Amino acid sequence: MQFIRFVFLLIFIISSFSSNLYSQFVIKGIVKDSSDKALLIGASIRDEVLGKGTVTNENGEFELILESLPSNLVISHVSYQTKKVKVNVSDFLTVNLTQRTILLPEIVVGNEAEKIMNEVIKNVSRDKDTYNYKAFFQKISLDGDTFTKIHELFFDVQYKNGGVQRIHPTNSRYAELTNQRFEHVNLFRQSLYYVRMIDSTLNFPISPQLQNTRSYKLDSYLLTETGNRIAVINCKIISNSSSFVGQIFVDTDINSLQRIEGTFYDENQLVQSQTEIVLNYRINEKSGLASFDHLQLIYTLQTKGIEQLTFTEKAWLLFLEEFPKEQFENTKSYSPFQKSIQKKIKQTPYSSQFWNTNIPIKHTNISQEVIQEIEKNGLFKSNYN
C-alpha cells in the first residue's frame, strides 16, 4: 500500500513539474500617454530579470509570453518616464506613461548639437566587441488599402561596429496575396542597413564626419528619472534629389545614442517616395555602450501622372535576447546584403506549429484576420531551418 502511495506521489510530482516547465503566461496590454491618452507606438516592454521583451504595435498594443510569474515589467519610451509594473497573473494591462520634463538649452558659444554628435561618434567608434542576438523581422505590403504581401522572419545576428555583419535565418513565412502593380524596395535589406549607427552614406543621419550637407540644432533636453539629460537634436540633410528631416536623441551624461526618428524623402520624374523611420537603441549591459534595439519603418511610394497610385510597406525589426558567440560560430551564416540571401530564406516548407506560439510583436486585428485567412487557404511558404 505504501509503495502504491509512493508511486502516485511520484507521478503527481512529475506531472506538476512538467506542467510548470511548459506553462506559459500571456500578458496583454496597451500603452498610452497619461495626459491625452494617445496610443504610444514602439514603447518597450521588458522583463526586468530575464530581459525578454516586446514593443507596442501601431495601435499601442503589446503581447508578451512569459514562462513564469510574478514578473516585474519595465515599460519605457525615450520621451516618457520609465515605469515598472508588477504582474502576478495573466491579465490585460493599461499602462499610462508620463512625459519627461522638458528643459530649454542654455545659450553657449558654438554649435552645441555638433559637439554632442561628435562625442556620440567617438563613443560608437570605440566599441570593438561582437554581439550575437536573436532577431525578428516583419513586413506587410499594401496596394492602396489592400494587403498584397506579408513576410515574417526569425534570424540570428552577428552585430559589430554598430552594424549587422552576418545573419543566420532560422524560421520564415511568406505569402503573396495578389500581384503587386509596382515592385517595392527590399525592406529587409534596407532595415538591416538602417541598423548601422554610423554610416558615411550621404543621407544617413550620423556620419563619421559631419559634412556640410548636414545641419544639427539643439532643440531641448529631456530630464530622466536618474537626473540624466537627453538632448533632442533637430537634424536636416539635403542633397540633389533626396533629403532627411528628423530628430536625434542622445543621453549626454554617457554620450549614448537613444533614438533617431524622421523621414527620408526621394523623388524622380515618375514617382515620389518617403520613408518614415524610428530607430531605438539600448545600453548593452556588458559594454555599457549603446547598441540597436528595434526599428519601425513605413515606406510609401506614389506614382505621378493621370493615375496616381499609392503603395505602402510597413516593417518592424527587433533584436531580442543576446546569446553566446560560440552558438553563432557553429552555424552557417551569410552577409545580409548578398542577393542570394532571399533564396536561402525561402527554401523550405512553412510550418504553422512554430508560428502559433512565436510572434514577438502583437499583430493588429486586421493583420491577424489576414494571417488566419492565409493559413486557412494554405498560402504561406517557407520555413527556413
- The portion of residues forming beta strands comes to 35-45%
- Indicate how many domains the architecture comprises: 2
Number of strands: 18
| Major sheet attributes | 11 strands, antiparallel
> What is the succession of H and E elements?
HEEEEEEEEHEEEHEEEEEEEHHHH
Shape: globular
Strands side by side in the biggest sheet: 8-12-13-14-15-16-17-18-9-10-11
The number of helices is: 7
Structural class: alpha+beta
What is the gyration radius calculated from CA atoms?
A: 23 Å
Q: Whole-Å distance between the termini?
A: 51 Å
**What integer is the average pLDDT?**
85
Poorly predicted runs: 6-22
The helicity comes to 10-25%
Describe this structure in words.
This protein is of the alpha+beta class and 385 residues long. It folds into 2 domains: 2-99, Carboxypeptidase-like, regulatory domain (Immunoglobulin-like); 112-376, no CATH class. Helix content is 18%, strand content 44%. It is built from 7 helices and 18 strands. It has helices spanning 2-22, 112-125, 187-194, 325-329, 341-345, 352-355, 365-376; strands at 25-33, 44-47, 53-55, 61-66, 71-77, 80-87, 92-97, 101-103, 130-143, 146-160, 163-176, 214-223, 229-238, 242-251, 256-267, 271-283, 290-303, 310-322. It has an 11-stranded antiparallel beta sheet with strand order 8-12-13-14-15-16-17-18-9-10-11, with helices on both faces. It has a 4-stranded antiparallel beta sheet with strand order 3-2-5-6, with no helix packed on it. Strand 15 and strand 16 form a beta hairpin. The N and C termini lie far apart (51 Å).
